[in-house]
Amino acid sequence: MSDHRAESPRPERAPGPPEPADQPGPAEARTPEAVPAGVQMSKPVPAPARSHTPDSAVPDERAAVPEPPKVPAYARQPHPRQPSSPWAHAGRQTPSELTRIRPAAPGLIPAATLWSVLATALLSALLLGDGIGLNLLVVAVPAALAAYFAARAAGRRLRPWTAVWAVGGLALLSVPALRDAGWPVLLAVVSAVAVGSLALHGSRGWLGIFLGSLGLLTSVAGSLGWGVHGVRDRMAGSRGRWGVAFRSTAAAVVLLIVFGALFASADAAFADVLGSLMPDVSVGEGPWRLFLAAVGLVGALAAAYTAAAPVRWDALAVPSGPARGRLEWALPLIVLNLLFAGFLAIQLTVLLGGYDKVMAETHLSYAQYAREGFWQLLWATVLTLLVIALALRWAPRGGARDRTLVRSVLGTLCLLTLVVVASALRRMDLYVDAYGLTRLRISVAAVELWLGVVLLLIMAAGVFGAKMLPRAVAASAAVGVLAFGLVSPDGLIAEQNVQRYGDHHSIDIQYLRGLSADAVPALDTLPEPLRSCALEEIQRTLRGSDEPWYATSWGEARARDILGDWDPGARVRNCQGPGSGDMGDERGGDGDGGGDSYDPYDPY
User: Fold this and answer.
1) Which of 212, 220, 222 is nearest to 105 (CA)?
2) How many helices (H) and strands (E) are present in the chain, helices listed first?
3) How far apart are CA 468 and CA 458, in angstroms?
4) pTM of the entire structure?
5) Apex 441 CA angle, 435 and 445, nearest 5
6) Which tens digit of pLDDT belongs to each residue from 130-181?
7) CB-based contacts of 76: which residues, under 8 Å, 6+ apart?
């Protein structure tokens, strides 16, 4: 049994150095006996008066209790730290990193978020099964509202960059409503998901921007449990209100079906209007519609969960590398700048000298000269950006002189790389003039142009600061994808090839036949039989499709208005010729006389 079952209340003392824990204080030594538990004392127990008897005559009460042996400080630790293996140390770091970037679980899911998620699932099942067009933007609106309601309930405020990402994501989803070509539409949809994920996370750094654009996928598992628990808790706490809402919704649906069917059978015009507005859902499409509903529900729920509890990706900052000395850092970059300058001097002499200069210097045609160098210059631009990133990581950071050195060397490299970008675009212009514009050529030219924009942003960051550089680069990529979709790449391809036919009487009809409905306005201006050969495949596709209004793009609707019920008939019989003369050189022959009728870099 312990000798100290309870203690008397001690008077408060002024703060001072604590007494040793292994020795009793004076009050404990003078207390005759402990107060039983549960008994409240009305007066403090007086301490017995001290006797004037010498200490040798009165036995000391502390002498009966043996003092514990003194233990060194390191041995008094409750759990002495034992040496661990490097494997165990690495295993303890991973949970701490995840705990640091993951926030606490969000609270109860708001009712407005639940209704928005259900609306997204219903619209996905009804509208997305017929194709992609304006319906994708319609489905995205309730999903964005679900995220907004969840963020507001969690106490998050709308910040300027969040609004920029949100508006940009919705703008990217307008591309499927405007363009019929599938490849810019797919690029716009993927970019819209990435930009929307950035709006939910609010990242700032390079690693945060990269991981934040993909971070929506990490919220899928947590959002499902969040939604299930929220529905269960709300059903348990307010069964009456949920029952009223369910019965009211069911009654409204039944009334719409019954009276809508009666009015449709009574008036054919109303039946046509109702049929054009309502989606045509058959029993055979049931599994596909259920899958689309599940995708819409999970996507909206993951967006709401991310808005309520976003992962802090910016906490995973990449540390800067060790600073190098000025000579060690600057010498390789200065040599690279001199190489760029020598190359560009020769480029300007050749490209600005005209066709005769190219033939005299290289013994190649314009097309052959352009084809040999464009791809190398594109990779040189990409590698230069990588060199700049590594140079900034190991740049000297001693003071103002080091900052001036870094800005001077890297600014010169960026400026020379911009001239390389201009040279590559000039080569592509010669390339297109000889062979015609294709999807691959316009895509890589757009990428080269965006790399030039990134170089301009890096140069601006060297002057005004690099705080906003990661978000500015991501925003420029989103704007580039949006502009690429809005300018209608297939329409530009058709316009350039039609103009080239008027100048050189050279055209690749077999390639133009595979374009989308966006190319119809330009191809419709070709003379016969080229017009019929180019539009016959597109017209057959338009006749075979019966997509509703919400799954039809503006480009497809415009092509239907232009072509109408036109039938090419027998005029397409001459489309299988070799493509010479008025039909143009097959595969876009070399208009400059080079004799090269095939482009190995673009077999499509």
Assistant:
1) 222
2) 23, 0
3) 10
4) 0.72
5) 125
6) 888 899 999 999 999 999 999 999 988 889 999 999 999 999 999 999 999 9
7) none
